[in-house]
Design a protein that fits this description.
Structural class: mainly alpha
Mean pLDDT: 84
Strand content: under 5%
Largest sheet: none
Distance between the termini: 28 Å
Number of domains: 1
Low-confidence stretches: 6-10
Helix content: over 70%
Amino acid sequence: MKTPPAERSMQETRSAATARPPRGLRRWAWLALAYISLGLALVALAIPGIPSTEFVLLSAWAAAKSSPRLTAWLENHRLFGPMLHNWRNGRLVSRRAKISASLAMSVCLLIMLWTVPQRWVIVLATLGMGAGALWMWSRPEPDTNRRGS
């Protein structure tokens, strides 16, 4: 019997988190990527227009390859845990996250329209934010009718 993609993703994550992390330079490289991504996610929470979700996902992926302790912390975190759970169980993005990201990108675009004199910069930023918004809104949402979601 074939394993559904969401279950396969959970199994891969569990096995990566419980597997022995690599040693030496490889482990430190994964760990550095995890912490740098986490730092960027924290900065992105405060600056409109910078997506935090992608950095959290990258951090969790790198942590699963290097640090069971950081992986557990991320999965049990009040803000990041539900986001990671949704992503690992069907690549889901909550409606609240979609709306927050869309509003943040809109605010960023308005600020750029008032402060950036080069129109080509605004066009590139708008295209990038538009592509990110299209991808994000194309992701399915968690079922909010289920208990415990």
